[in-house]
Structures are given as structure tokens and as C-alpha cells.
Write a structure and sequence with these properties.
The structure holds two protein chains of two kinds. Chain A is mainly β. In chain A, 0% of the residues lie in helices and 56% in strands. Chain A has no helices and eleven strands. Chain B is built from no helices and eleven strands. Chains A and B meet through strand 5, strand 9 and strand 10 of A and strand 5 and strand 10 of B.
């Protein structure tokens, strides 16, 4: 059975304190892996799609990497506006059917 | 990326009633999906809305409870029927990236439903 597990569940950071979030997955025939950011009361905001092991993508203070079994989302020198829940998801039997992890809630304090 | 709107943004409904949620996209897309996010939980796929044919439901979701329509490539509706408090959730539609970008998925702002 396909599974997506995110850790930690919650992360509290001081502004400027870099850290990483983990997304591990077990899925047959990985097509890719998505990262989203979700603010309270809003829909998930697309961040990245990673397709193959070794791939990296960056957007502002965020950098996503992918290995054969997991993905990391690195937050470099975070700011309070980076506070959100970060979700990863993998397509299961088609690109459209996403299975989501439970998310990591990140709080960045000034 | 596609601009997605949902109506209503939130609603409070009585047990036993039904609510229809609309999802409108500003451009034609191939795939449209409906997800549920229960309080404090992550997203669960309800169904794929197929244009011109019946929706494809995931395990645990049935057409009688969640009828879906998709009359064209930019619009879909999800009805939550005979509601109970357990249906209180955020309901989200999502779409692929449009022509040439079916491997990207964008989400609408969601509809927050509370059932009393």
C-alpha cells in the first residue's frame, strides 16, 4: 500500500534558524513528488514537483531535494511569513490521484 | 497557473440537508478533482470529475453521498448529500496545469462546511 509519512509533525523555529522537513514514501513506480504550502483556512499552494532522485528545486528560502525513498524541504534563514503547514504528496496510480502526507506545521518566531 | 474559485467559501448547514459546491477555473483543464480535509487532517481524494461522463470515486466515497457534475472543461460541482456532523470539513477542488502541464496540480481556496 502506498504511504507518505512526514516528520516532524510540528517545528518551531527562531527567525534565521535553518531547518529541514522530511517526507518519506513507499510507492511503486514513483512518478514524482509534490510539495505544497498551506496557510490556515486556505487551499494548498503549489511549490515544487520533483521527478527523479537527485533532483533539486529552489524557491526563495525553500529548497526541495529528492532521493529514492524520501524528500527534504530545507528552509534557509526562515522568516515569520514562512509559517505554514507544508504538505508533500505523491501520485498513486495516475498523475492526478495524489496521496498526501499529514503535513509539518512550521512556526517561525521573530 | 490556473485561477480557481469556489462557491460558497463557507456555509453552516443543518443535518439532513444537501449543499452544492461550485468550482470554476479561468482556463480549460483536463483533470479536475475533489478533495476533503477533515479538521486537523490532511487531504483525502474523493473523486475525479470526468468531463461528459460519471465521476470516478475513491474507496470509501459513493455517488449517492457525493454526486459530482462536470459539464465542461472549466466547471464542476460537488454535492454533499444528507449531511451529518461528520461531513464537517473543508472541501477543495483541484485541477491540473492545463495543456502540457498535466503533472502539476493546483488547488482552489476551499469551502469550509459546518454541519449542525
Amino acid at each position: 500500500e502506498d504511504q507518505v509519512t512526514q516528520s516532524p509533525e510540528a517545528l518551531r523555529l527562531q527567525e534565521g534558524e535553518s531547518s529541514s522537513l522530511n517526507c518519506s514514501y513507499t510507492v511503486s513506480g514513483l512518478r514524482g513528488l509534490f510539495w505544497y504550502r498551506q496557510d490556515p483556512g486556505k487551499g494548498p499552494e503549489f511549490l515544487f514537483t520533483l521527478y527523479s532522485a537527485g533532483e533539486e528545486k529552489e524557491k526563495e528560502r525553500l529548497k526541495a531535494t529528492l532521493t529514492k525513498k524520501e524528500s527534504f524541504l530545507h528552509i534557509t534563514a526562515p522568516k515569520p511569513e514562512d509559517s505554514a503547514t507544508y504538505l508533500c504528496a505523491v501520485p498513486t496510480d495516475s498523475w492526478g490521484k495524489l496521496q498526501f502526507g499529514a503535513g509539518t506545521q512550521v512556526v517561525v518566531t521573530p | 497557473s490556473a485561477v480557481i474559485s469556489q462557491k460558497p467559501s463557507r456555509d453552516i448547514c443543518q443535518r439532513g440537508t444537501s449543499l452544492t459546491i461550485q468550482c470554476q477555473v479561468d482556463s480549460q483543464v483536463t483533470m479536475m478533482f475533489w478533495y476533503r480535509q477533515q479538521p486537523g487532517q490532511s487531504l483525502t481524494l474523493i473523486a475525479t470529475a470526468n468531463q461528459g461522463s460519471e465521476a470516478t470515486y475513491e474507496s470509501g466515497f459513493v455517488i449517492d453521498k457525493f454526486p459530482i457534475s462536470r459539464p465542461n472543461l472549466t466547471f464542476s460541482t460537488l454535492t454533499v448529500s444528507n449531511m451529518s456532523p461528520e461531513d464537517s470539513s473543508i472541501y477543495l477542488c483541484s485541477v491540473d496545469g492545463g495543456q502540457g502541464s498535466t503533472d502539476t496540480q493546483y488547488f482552489g481556496p476551499g469551502t469550509r462546511l459546518t454541519v449542525l
